[in-house]
Specification:
The structure holds two protein chains of two kinds. By secondary structure, chain A is mainly α. Chain A has seven helices and no strands. In chain A, α1 runs antiparallel to α2 and α1 (about 5-25) runs parallel beside α7 (about 185-220). The longest helix of chain A is centred in the last third of the chain and has 32 residues, at about 185-220. Chain B contains six helices and five strands. Chain B has helices at about 5-90, 95-125, 125-130, 135-145, 165-185, 220-235; strands at about 150-155, 190-200, 200-210, 240-245, 250-260. The chains are: A mainly alpha, B alpha+beta.
Chain lengths: ~220, ~260
């Protein structure tokens, strides 16, 4: 019997169920999409665990899920930025850039070839580019919040906590991704686990805040 | 540089990247708290401003009521009594004499109507200011001159801007009323000079009299409370200031300077 419940999958499952409970009646497509996205991420994680035990390679589920990761997170940023400016072109430009790097990665590493290549991260450049891009988006969202004259209670702001999760994970991952090969120890993996916990905890809390926001606005 | 040193540097850089978001998050919360405080202070200022406006309106209302009461008693009341007397003295068998008396009664009635109109205009302070500060000042001067006790000189230098500020106009007008009221009550003046000047987005209203003046140091704490302090407070409300200079036997000059519109 394979152990599917690891540190990473447990927190992902918690976040998925939180999303399912608190976002199911959501009308905003970006927030509703988080349920679908988290389901895809959980499926990718479980498939990766199965593959690594049975076939000793597990890269391709991650290579597929990265496409959904870029799309759903961009969609969410678009929804958050739209409150301040028309962000469609910025987000599409970011996605186009990621797509070009992804195609380059695929050509370089013969994507989806079912062979043992566990020590070589196929989507290295895409991951790095995504970390930088989403960190910039998160910082820009903070800048917009600072610039905004109206006051919002950050403690209960769904958008703020969602972006905070993104900033912790992708800003931290930027360094870890760059130096992964140089740090010859379990440290990068441990830090990644901490970052995964941070993003999913922040997101779970943001889903709860989102439900409060909708309840308050209806009342 | 050895592998160990490189590893340490990489570790430090990675830690900086991991800790940086914590500081950013802390800054966001500190800034947000400041923003909240700023908004609360702004709301409080607005509340104080509204309260001052209401207070000023109430004071002026009281002042106007007293003026109306005095005027009805001393002026219009007298005119109507005279009209009544004239009408009572009409003898129905003397046509020529009666014609004169009726003409006198008509004249007295016309004067009463004129007085009533002037009184009405004074009551409608907001409407007066609606015609512009310059026009409102002219009405006020007309009212003062009616008593026959004062010679009022009024000059308006510099073209007023096309976009006016009704709130500031009203407060400036109320300040002028307060100043004139003080002159009538305390100054024993015979000549009053009013000067309105607009230059470089600044509006200056200067009122000068040739009255007995006063010494700032001689004023009792309670004495300066209602009049002069109110003038300074009201000028402060519209972002301006009031300068009061006076010396015994040399009259008083009050200058209000405020950004405008």
């Amino acid at each position: 019997m394979l152990n599917y419940l690891t540190e990473n999958t447990s927190v992902e499952l918690i976040c998925f169920f939180t999303a399912l409970v608190f976002l199911v009646s959501e009308k905003d497509i970006a927030w509703l999409g988080m349920i679908v996205y988290l389901f895809i991420m959980c499926s990718a994680e479980f498939s990766a665990i199965y593959l690594i035990k049975k076939h000793h390679y597990n890269q391709w589920p991650y290579n597929i899920s990265i496409v959904f990761e870029a799309s759903f997170i961009s969609l969410m940023f678009n929804s958050l930025f739209n409150k301040y400016f028309k962000s469609k072109f910025v987000i599409l430009a970011g996605l186009a850039l990621l797509l070009c790097i992804y195609i380059y990665d695929v050509r370089e590493h013969h994507f989806l070839l079912f062979k043992d290549i566990t020590h070589d991260t196929l989507n290295d450049k895409t991951n790095n580019a995504m970390s930088i891009l989403f960190s910039l988006y998160a910082l820009y969202y903070y800048y917009l919040l600072i610039k905004d004259d109206s006051y919002i209670n950050l403690r209960h702001s769904a958008g703020f906590w969602w972006v905070t999760g993104v900033l912790f994970f992708y800003f931290g991952s930027t360094a870890i991704n760059f130096f992964r090969r140089e740090l010859n120890s379990d440290l990068p993996e441990d830090i990644t686990t901490i970052l995964i916990w941070m993003i999913y905890c922040c997101w779970s809390y943001s889903f709860i805040c989102r439900r409060w926001e909708i309840k308050t606005s209806v009342a | 540089m050895g592998d160990k040193d490189l590893g340490s540097i990489i570790l430090v850089v990675s830690l900086i990247f991991l800790i940086a978001p914590v500081f950013i998050l802390a800054y966001m919360f500190v800034h947000n708290r400041r923003k909240k405080r700023h908004i609360e202070e702004k709301a409080l200022m607005q509340l104080t401003f509204d309260a001052e406006i209401t207070k000023t309106q109430l004071e002026v209302q009281e002042q106007t009521m007293q003026t109306i009461g005095a005027d009805l008693h001393d002026n219009i009341g007298q005119l109507l009594s005279l009209t009544s007397l004239t009408l009572n003295s009409i003898e129905l068998d003397s046509d020529k004499k009666n014609r004169k008396k009726i003409d006198a009664a008509i004249d007295l009635t016309m004067r009463s109507i004129k007085e009533m109109r002037l009184l009405g205009k004074l009551l409608q302070g907001d409407q007066l200011v609606g015609m512009g500060l310059d026009e409102a000042i002219k009405y006020e001067i007309n009212w003062i001159e009616k008593s026959g006790k004062y010679k009022v000189n009024y000059t308006n230098d510099g073209e007023m801007p096309a976009a006016s500020s009704p709130d500031k106009d009203l407060i400036l007008f109320r300040i002028l009323q307060e100043v004139l009221n003080n002159i009538i009550k305390h100054a024993q003046a015979t000549v009053i000079s009013i000067k309105l000047e607009y230059e470089d987005s600044m509006l200056q209203l200067q009122v000068n009299d040739n009255g007995i003046g006063f010494n700032h140091a001689d004023l009792q704490p309670g004495q300066s409370g209602m009049g002069l302090l109110n003038i300074q407070k009201r000028a402060g409300i519209i972002g301006g200031g009031a300068n009061i200079t006076s010396n015994p036997a040399e009259g008083t000059t009050i200058t209000i300077l405020t950004p405008y519109p």
